[in-house]
Amino acid sequence: MKKSYHAAFILGQAAAFPKQLPVIAGVHTVNNTDARVIDPVRFARAGSQATGALALAELERLEDLLFDREGNVSYAVEGYTSTKGQPGLRISLTGDLVLRCQRCLERLPLHLDVQRHVVLVTEAADLDPLEDEEDNTDTILNTGSLDLHDLLEQEIVLSVPMVPRHPEGACSVQPGTTRVDETASPLAALAQMKARLK
Asked: Which of 1, 25, 46, 166 has CB 3.0 to 4.6 Å from 39, enough for a Cys bridge?
């Protein structure tokens, strides 16, 4: 499921990178929140690294789920070459989010600790998952340039529950609030997630 989201994201955004953003290509270490666009293959082949933080207030795809938009998500991205010779990105995301429980509409703390690998391929046919591919690995199409912050935001969105809720019995619906229909189709929740990834 995650791979299809990545494919749609990359194919839809490839031609829309802001030209004014600086490009990171073949550098060793990057620690600059303004340096967003990378040449992913050169970044990976050189073993480059990028670190920084994303402000929750700037993550528009999470706006509907966040109870509190204060704080940051720290990230570290490291380029590498897989055992099959494919360029890849090793992504680490950590931070504390406060979501809105869709049962009681109150605060729902969530600690984010994400470790993922992104492997770059040159053909759309190679986007299909490989039999020996690990669960924490995504495959995306190499388009020559990649908006790193958009990719990281997408990984954050995919890491939070589609319908965040406290455990059963841990919250109650307050008088005057509207209870979320817990029998809603999972496909409806999936459609909402796809809308946030656009």
From this structure: 25
Domain regions of the chain by residue span: 2-196
Q: Would you give the distance in Å from CA 131 to the centre of its chain?
A: 23
Q: Which residue has the tokens 């997630």?
A: 193
Q: Are 48 and 79 in contact (CB under 8 A)?
A: yes
* pTM tops 0.70: no
pLDDT digits (tens, 9 = 90+) for 43-89: 999 999 999 999 999 999 888 889 989 999 999 999 999 888 889 99
The upper half-sphere exposure of residue 38, i.e. CA atoms within 13 Å in the direction of its Cβ, equals: 32
Residue 139 structure tokens:
């495959």
Q: What is the DSSP string of 16-46?
A: ---TTS-EE-S-SEE--TT--EE-HHHHHHT
**CA separation for the pair 164, 106 (Å, rounded):** 11
- Do 67 and 51 contact (CB within 8 A), yes or no? no
pLDDT value at position 23? 38
Residue 111 and residue 59: Cα distance in Å, rounded? 16
Token pair recorded at residue 80: 């590498």
* Contacts for 160 with CB less than 8 Å, ≥ 6 apart: 62, 65, 97, 99, 110, 112
Mean local confidence (pLDDT), 152-167 = 91
